[in-house]
Specification:
The chain is 28% helix and 27% strand. It has eleven helices and 20 strands. Strands 14-13-12-11-20-19-18-17-16-15 form a ten-stranded antiparallel beta sheet, with helices on one face. Strands 2-3-4-5-6-7-8-9 form an eight-stranded parallel beta sheet. Helix 8 links the parallel strand 7 and strand 8. Helix 1 crosses helix 8 and helix 2 runs antiparallel to helix 11.
Length: 508
Amino acid sequence: MRIRQSFLLSSIFLLMSTASVLAQNKTAKPVSPNASPEATALLQLLYSLSGKYTLTGQHNFPMARDRNSKFAASYTGKTPVIWSIDFGFAKKGDKDSYLERAANVEEAKRQNKMGAIVTMCWHAVPPTASEPVTFQPVAGADPNALASVQGRLTDQQYKDILTPGTELNKKWMAQVDTIAFYLKQLQKAHVPVLWRPYHEMNGNWFWWGNRTGQYSTQALYRQIFDRLVNYHKLDNLIWVWSVDRPTRAGMEFSNFYPGDNYLDILALDVYGSDFKQDYYDQLLVLSQGKPITLAEVGTPPTPEILEKQPKWSYWVIWAGMTHGTPKKQFEALANDPQVLGLHDAAYINAVNPFRAKIGELLLPLNQPADFSGEWVLNESKSNLGVQGAGNLPHKLKIDQKDTEIYVQRYFIEEWRDDRVSEDKMTLTGKETKSDFYGSPRGIIAGLSANLDTLNTTTIVILNRGGQTTRMTTTEIWALQNHGNELSIAQSSISPQGSRKIMMVFDRE
């Protein structure tokens, strides 16, 4: 036993040394023939960061666009580098609706422009059904006509999917071609994608998983690779091979490895903080120097785990699970210089040379403040003067995207529901015109030179009884306390006099 352990440890050490050398190879090429410059640059970036940094990431439900990522930014103290999305499978209105694909393609373009890295997966619909389907089998449904992501196909059905000319093979191709349609839009927009098909393939819970032998999960993975790369000529994909923890016999990584020529990155899904060193070591040996990553986690690894497992390129927290990790743990990660968020200088300095290679705009070291979120007035922290909070909003809902900010202000009406006002402001310094109780109003807004505060000037021209008066309000917005407080210094001049106050809102 000691001889076997010694041999295994020696092998691990040798392969880890090889991995270290390969990780420094800046000419690493994706497995897709004629990979796009963007995909090549992305993979080279991950090689260059391997063993030095771990990138933060967040999955978003298809219906959410980027709301999960925004919550993660406010809760964890770092804006995630990795923006993750699923192509969906469910009916209209469901958080996993497949009808959100077009909108999420546009969101992926926006995320890429902002400097985030896009990763996509697909809870694929079994060829025995058509979209939409449920996640788990419906009670009493025909098991031979599986219409859910989870569940088991018959051996014959699985064989038919992998056999050219059968009805199930044709149906499978049509479903994959639908996904290719959206991936081609990203290819046209020069957006590289960390593409993760048939994830957790060593598990037996998804219809595609845990098949060995001639008609195997490996073969299905190679088949989708061939369809997307060789038939559809998609060149913007970085192929992420994704497995779950080998918690029982039959889930060994090597049983499902499709071959070196079919993957760029090896990924593990970890829930319950089950970051066993053995999983890491096995995946590292299998990777032969290729990057490894945590494609899904419920809770991210602690700094202590990352010290022992430094090669994890990034993690992605699954949608809806960020709040399940104590803030204290996120504070420790936020203070770890090896853990990078989108706005960290180390990430910006690392990604900009690769963006320059492909003609992308460089990311500024000073990132613009993002005021998005729901905010509640904290009267005890505010300085409102003798007039109090009577005519001030007790709640704000703010949605900031690119150069626009949409603001909903909620005012308490003691005899009825809240009065809600809505404003849209641009950050370009261009005046936004609107109506204020029948009077013309203009708003000019812009970020400060350091991009950390928002300055607004609102002018309302009042016409009462043939007399024209002017009401001017200026505001300075600033984020404090790691983005969890919004302070608004307001000065106003009106026919009733002048007023200077400080409103402080807590992130809800």
